[in-house]
């Protein structure tokens, strides 16, 4: 069962919101294209499948947001796809949210992958995506990373079908040898 299951919109969540320890998703947003979900602050941790799953629509984190924390999700092995944030179709704009934290999930940290209905565009600021069992970020297209850390993800830090825009040196990928395996996973030694 999802902590918050929203089938339409628009939806505005103001203040500090929590969706922790649910058997399925912390937050499931199943809107149509054009539906806008606006969040101030959200913590979705220790959920069975995804911390947050946006099926379709736009996710906007306001510049007044305190945080987005999606940690230690994907706890239920029954789900083959699980992790921190999943977006099937639409847009994600984190603005300059002070803390976009996706850590220690039992799957991909951030999965921006299209379903049959369309693509995914994302601009992420102040990210802290570390130590996920899957990949840190999986993206199909239109990815821009501004400021933060993308390190120690077991499946690799970044997998993208199109070359993302990474505003170096503002984004620390912790990958000295450039092989998409972070230094912390390689125990500080290149694996080439």
Question: Can you describe this structure?
Answer:
This protein has 192 residues and is mainly β. Helices cover 0% and strands 44% of the residues. The chain has no helices and 16 strands. It has a six-stranded parallel beta barrel. Mean pLDDT is 83; it is low at 188-192.
Briefly summarize what is shown.
It is built from no helices and 16 strands.
List keywords for this structure.
192 residues; single chain; mainly beta; 6-stranded parallel beta barrel
**Approximate helicity band:** under 10%
The whole-angstrom Rg is 15 Å
Order of strands, main sheet, comes to 4-5-8-11-9-6
Q: Could you give a short account of the major beta sheet?
A: 6 strands, parallel, barrel
With helices defined by DSSP (H or I, 4 residues minimum), what is the helix count?
A: 0
Which structural category fits the helices and strands?
mainly beta
Gap between N and C termini: 44 Å
Shape: globular
Strand proportion, as a percent range, falls in 35-45%
* H and E order: EEEEEEEEEEEEEEEE
Mean pLDDT: 83
| Poorly predicted regions | 188-192
Question: How many β-strand runs?
Answer: 16
Topology:
Blueprint: E1 4-6, E2 11-18, E3 27-30, E4 36-43, E5 50-61, E6 68-69, E7 83-87, E8 90-93, E9 100-103, E10 108-112, E11 120-130, E12 137-139, E13 143-151, E14 158-160, E15 165-166, E16 171-172
Parallel strand pairs: 1-3, 2-4, 3-5, 4-5, 4-6, 5-7, 5-8, 6-9, 7-10, 8-11, 9-11, 10-12, 11-13, 12-14, 13-15, 13-16
């Amino acid at each position: 069962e999802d902590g918050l299951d929203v089938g339409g919109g628009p939806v505005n969540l103001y203040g500090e919101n929590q969706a922790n320890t649910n058997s399925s998703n912390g937050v499931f947003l199943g809107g149509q294209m054009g539906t806008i979900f606006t969040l101030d602050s959200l913590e979705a941790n220790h959920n069975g499948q995804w911390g947050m799953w946006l099926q379709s629509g736009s996710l906007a984190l306001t510049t007044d947001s305190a945080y987005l924390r999606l940690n230690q999700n994907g706890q239920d092995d029954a789900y083959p796809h699980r992790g921190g944030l999943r977006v099937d179709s639409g847009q994600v704009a984190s603005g300059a949210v002070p803390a976009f934290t996706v850590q220690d999930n039992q799957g991909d940290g951030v999965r921006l992958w299209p379903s049959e209905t369309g693509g995914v565009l994302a601009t992420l600021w102040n990210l802290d995506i570390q130590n996920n069992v899957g990949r840190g970020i999986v993206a199909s297209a239109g990815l821009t990373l501004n400021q933060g850390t993308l390190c120690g993800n077991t499946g690799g830090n970044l997998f993208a079908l199109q070359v993302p825009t990474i505003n170096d040196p503002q984004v620390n990928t912790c990958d000295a040898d450039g092989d998409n395996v972070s230094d912390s996973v390689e125990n500080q030694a290149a694996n080439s």
